[in-house]
Specification:
Keywords: Membrane, Transmembrane, Transmembrane helix. This protein has 2 helices and no strands. By secondary structure, it is mostly helical. The chain is elongated and about 50 Å long.
Length: about 50
């Protein structure tokens, strides 16, 4: 039910309805990847220096 409503709303908005969710998911994925990289790389560089 919820998926059908979501796809109907996306379809009625045209190409913007498909572009916006994809953009949000892409930015969220890049943000999570950057956070994971920052956490693990910063730990390894601090261990290598000491």
């Amino acid at each position: 039910m919820m998926t059908t409503d979501c796809f109907a709303l996306m379809g009625s908005m045209g190409w913007m309805g498909w572009l916006m969710p994809l953009t949000v998911m892409l930015l969220l994925g890049l943000g999570i990847a950057a956070l994971v990289k920052y956490l693990f790389v910063s730990r390894h560089t601090l261990e290598d220096r000491s």
